[in-house]
């Protein structure tokens, strides 16, 4: 039932219409003071205001009344046909100034006309607002596609998605929270203020609930939501009041959530905001899967080291850099001595776990700039950028000693001892092409393998 607020001294003919108005779906509420009228406006739900011209001066001097009544249609009953403004200095297309006394039919016609015009204007304004938002969303999606088409940098790409999502939704902050350690191991994801990881217990926090259910959530007041958990739902240096979470789906499972916090200017998040978050989460998942597949394509599935395909590309890049900056580099070709005995004695599963441990030893004892690859079987090739042959020999000898001293798979009850033979070649001193460089290093390694094993040999011209 629509509410009509009548503000007068009780003498207008409108009071006689109360029963007839109610029969037609209108509830007439009467007040004779501005303060009481303001209380109704504050509570909301007033659809139309009717007053007489005697109250105009008081209304025009009340900032609070004008603020609360802004946009509400109103009828002013005057003593003459002279049109007056209900609110000084305020534009209002829905004010009718009519002489009194009014008959019911005329009053009802005026009420219906004003409310109908207001309803049409509200619908037009809503449609215009939605159209404008849709235009922004289309540009948002186009910008995201362009970002990932122009960069393979997952960190830069995700940062762009988060910032664009935050701006379009009007959120105070936007971030990603992951519950999958493997993604951080395989992809170039790194922990930042906006990209974080947290080990969820099943269903803990709103984040855990979204992960478990695989569906988004919108919370207008976290203090009233029993799912909220200060640890699982934390965002640094932010007092969280409201939020939207959307799940990140990767390979048919939820691996994290995209999070929006605290709509700006104290506004409430809307269903449109939640749909935006869901779409942004989907784009984020695509970007992560793209990075994951890219890393998998250039990585060995067993050890997660680079594979031979990526090694060849990396050598070509180092050759270009060496020629451009006059900075020689070296490669180490390493083969595990008698590794077949491990597979024959303990089985291929133990052999595979041993190769994984060898890969970890190489990663832990080389620089971040060094490129480590599994060339095939029990062979490994290492690129040492800006490293001449003498320095690379020392690196190879250090690796040989570490492998010789290591007891493999000790933590699972084995006591496997191994040695390695290593060959070294440098560019441009020993070779002019990638194939030649690999062949020379390989030959140097085999010279050691066929002599004594567990030794480092440098290339010979």
Q: How would you describe the overall organization of this protein?
A:
- It is a single chain.
- The chain folds into 3 domains: about 1-120, Response regulator (Rossmann fold); about 150-295, 2-Layer Sandwich (Beta-Lactamase); about 310-460, Reverse transcriptase/Diguanylate cyclase domain (Alpha-Beta Plaits).
- It contains 14 helices and 17 strands.
- The protein has helices spanning about 20-25, 35-45, 55-60, 65-70, 105-150, 155-170, 180-185, 205-215, 270-295, 310-325, 340-345, 350-365, 390-405, 435-450; strands at about 1-5, 25-30, 45-50, 75-80, 95-100, 170-180, 195, 215-220, 245-250, 255-265, 330-335, 370-375, 380-385, 405-410, 415, 420-425, 455-460.
- Helix 1 links the parallel strand 1 (about 1-5) and strand 2.
- The longest helix is centred in the first third of the chain and has 47 residues, at about 105-150.
